[in-house]
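Design request, tokens follow.
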């Protein structure tokens, strides 16, 4: 790395820490630390929702997916709008009217404290694994580019994110998310401008090279197999539609990281406006990443360095970043770090909220919120150091989110709409749903990536229904024996 690149990266870290210090004085109570007194404007809330759901895995995986397989992943873009309908009309008003701090408080109201605690534990395990992965991926890239140790980068990212979250609470997390979004867009724009200006034909040259390699499929030429009902096809129209809908509904309805942003908004209308900004900015960012994948292919195709069957997309991405000019490389590296830190800070803050709100019965969780943030930051940093890949990065992203998140969605959906569901069914159905989801994640390899969400959601809902019926039969027998 050159001095200018280091200056950009160091400046980003410094501004993040300053934001944490700036908001330090406003966090004199738990409601302020967790929800900013429910006072935030829709603009930072919307950007924060988007960048929280985004991560360094999105930057590396989505561009790498397009680089290797074409534009099939874009089939899921309309789902952003489709899922916004129930989220804006049902989910956001639902949580605001409950006036809760944690999403899982509802499960206590609807079912029992045991179900609430189960959901809290599922969420924490899910997010620790997820955040550890999204820290590991960029650290590996940056370590390769700079020669700095992998462990050193992980400790740096985890340490800085933990520190400003410790100081500034949700305000620091949300406003650093805004900074991270701006850095990410600047990095992507700089990298794309470099390729456009360096290749003959510019934008046309990129699309021409991609078209010659069939990377504009399934749109050009149109691929009729996307309408196949075969669940083994990697990405089809149906898997992208239904699978992504369930995955997005999980993200925007049952994930405390996102729900906490709704609750931090001033009112329902502000949260709804923020959500609209979220999906518009997400679509824009994904289109940029898709173009980046095509640009990377055109760049390496022009230089004669393509070896599709020998090198994974992540290695091409690393090479590409290393080829960027000074300054642009610094912006791109900072964008990767920023996307990683947006997931890290949101993860430790939302997990600390859940620990303090939903699991406060245990003495270890009765520390102040800031101490819990420090403990979680240390734990996730440690997990990031030891985590290892179990598939491509794109597969990790889909399997982790769709595997551990969808059982939570099933608990909420069955609680809200299946009126005969009971505490017994929710508790044991949730447990068996997580077991089933874990088996599908690690044991089923020939299923379309997006169908993991559908399968795990349906199975958990089925278990809840089954155990609820068993509970209705067991409880009368228990009363008689007493």
């Amino acid at each position: 790395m050159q001095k200018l690149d280091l200056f950009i990266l160091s400046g980003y870290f410094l501004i993040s820490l300053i934001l944490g210090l700036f908001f330090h004085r406003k966090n004199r109570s738990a409601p302020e630390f967790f929800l900013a007194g429910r006072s935030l404007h829709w603009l930072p809330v919307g950007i924060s929702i988007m960048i929280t759901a985004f991560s360094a895995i999105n930057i590396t995986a989505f561009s790498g997916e397009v680089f290797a397989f074409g534009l099939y992943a874009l089939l899921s873009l309309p789902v952003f709008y489709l899922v916004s309908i129930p989220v804006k009309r049902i989910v956001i008003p639902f949580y605001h009217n409950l006036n809760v701090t944690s999403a899982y408080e509802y499960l206590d109201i609807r079912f029992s404290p045991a179900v609430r605690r189960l959901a809290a534990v599922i969420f924490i395990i899910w997010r620790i694994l997820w955040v550890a992965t999204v820290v590991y991926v960029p650290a590996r890239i940056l370590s390769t580019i700079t020669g700095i140790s992998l462990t050193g980068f992980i400790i740096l990212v985890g340490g800085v994110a933990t520190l400003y979250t410790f100081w500034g609470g949700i305000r620091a997390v949300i406003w650093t998310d805004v900074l991270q979004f701006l850095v990410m867009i600047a990095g992507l724009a700089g990298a794309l401008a470099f390729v456009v200006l360096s290749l003959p034909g510019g934008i046309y040259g990129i699309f021409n090279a991609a078209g010659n390699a069939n990377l504009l499929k399934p749109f050009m030429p149109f691929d009729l197999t996307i309408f196949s009902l075969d669940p083994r096809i990697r990405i089809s129209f149906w898997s992208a539609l239904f699978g992504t809908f369930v995955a997005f509904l999980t993200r925007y309805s049952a994930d405390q990281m996102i729900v906490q942003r709704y609750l931090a908004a001033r009112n329902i209308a502000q949260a709804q406006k923020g959500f609209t900004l979220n999906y518009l900015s997400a679509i824009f960012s994904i289109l940029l990443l898709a173009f980046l994948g095509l640009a990377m292919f055109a760049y390496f195709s022009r230089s004669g360095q393509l070896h599709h069957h020998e090198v994974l997309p992540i290695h091409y991405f690393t090479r590409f970043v290393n080829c960027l000019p000074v300054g642009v490389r610094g912006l791109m590296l900072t964008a990767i770090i920023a996307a990683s830190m947006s997931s890290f800070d949101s993860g430790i803050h939302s997990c600390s909220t859940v620990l303090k709100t939903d699991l406060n019965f245990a003495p270890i969780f009765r520390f102040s919120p800031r101490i819990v943030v420090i403990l979680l930051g240390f734990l996730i940093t440690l997990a990031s150091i030891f985590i290892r890949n179990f598939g491509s990065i794109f597969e990790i992203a889909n399997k982790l989110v769709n595997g551990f998140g969808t059982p939570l969605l099933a608990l909420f959906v069955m609680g809200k709409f299946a009126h005969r569901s009971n505490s017994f069914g929710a508790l044991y159905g949730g447990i068996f749903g997580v077991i089933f989801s874990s088996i599908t994640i690690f044991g089923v390899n020939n299923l379309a990536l997006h169908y993991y969400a559908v399968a795990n959601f349906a199975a958990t809902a089925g278990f809840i229904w089954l155990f609820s019926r068993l509970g209705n039969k067991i409880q009368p027998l228990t009363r008689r024996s007493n």
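Comment from the thread starter after seeing the answer: thanks! Residues 321 and 329 are 6 Å apart (CA to CA).
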